[in-house]
Design brief:
Strand content: 15-25%
Radius of gyration: 17 Å
Order of helices and strands: HHEHEHEHEHEHEHEHE
Largest sheet: 8 strands, mixed
Strand order of the largest sheet: 1-4-3-2-5-6-8-7
Structural class: alpha/beta
Length: 228
């Protein structure tokens, strides 16, 4: 944790991650980061989504985009909305940048760092949707305080949603799914769209991570809540 985190009483909801990159990924990161990347720790004021993309459009915030396959697929099928993907895994960031170039996705930007710090820097009501797909479940009880779907974090995310905007979560940990459901339902400004777990939305691509979970026999839970 940084001294700023300690002073603010913040607890990280993620593990900083690096890892090996292929030559293609390293090349994509070097060439494309200046045009498509945003370093969250370098923000010295508010984050203006319109300035980031160079035009105005509904904005989807993807928290934890992994290797970027799902984000790229959704953005390619949804060109009328912008996608801002946040990740801390360097090879994943590089892979998404490579996908952005290969598929000509001018509606994607990639941010590196703490998603909650980015959200704090964004104006209220600026988001059309927030996606939190398969976040770290922090399964040990003593680590539950690190979960991103917690009351204070949900209140922050919800405040950045426009009225009618959606907060869509997915997990393959049954206990975390129930905790998510309770937390989201308790927020008075969110409406449970399906009155419980949602049917699997067709717009959410199946990732390698999800396939591994299903192969291991774990059920996947989706939760979709809308801001009043």
């Amino acid at each position: 944790m940084t001294l700023t985190d300690i002073a603010a009483g913040r607890i990280r909801t993620f593990h900083p991650r690096r890892g090996r990159m292929s030559e293609r990924q390293r090349d994509a990161l070097t060439r494309l980061w200046p045009a498509y990347g945003l370093e969250i720790a370098a923000l010295d004021g508010p984050c203006d989504p319109t300035a980031l993309f160079g035009r105005r459009a509904p904005l989807v915030l993807e928290i934890g985009s992994g290797m970027g396959d799902a984000t790229a697929a959704m953005a390619a099928a949804d060109r009328d909305r912008h996608y801002l993907a946040v990740e801390v895994h360097t090879p994943g960031i590089a892979n998404l940048l490579d996908l952005v170039e290969r598929h000509g996705l001018d509606n994607v930007r990639v941010a590196e760092g703490d998603a909650l710090d980015l959200v704090r820097a964004m104006p209220e009501g600026c988001l059309d949707a927030v996606h939190v797909f398969f976040p770290d479940p922090w399964p040990k009880t003593r680590h539950h305080k690190r979960r991103i779907i917690a009351p204070a974090h949900v209140a922050l995310l919800r405040s950045r949603l426009a009225p009618g905007g959606t907060l869509h979560c997915a997990t393959d940990w049954a206990e975390y799914a129930e905790s998510m459901r309770e937390t989201l339902t308790a927020d008075p400004e969110l409406v449970d769209v399906y009155g419980g777990y949602a049917p699997r939305p067709a717009h959410r691509p199946v990732t390698k991570f999800e396939r591994r979970a299903l192969t291991a026999g774990r059920e996947v839970f989706d939760l979709i809540h809308r801001r009043r």
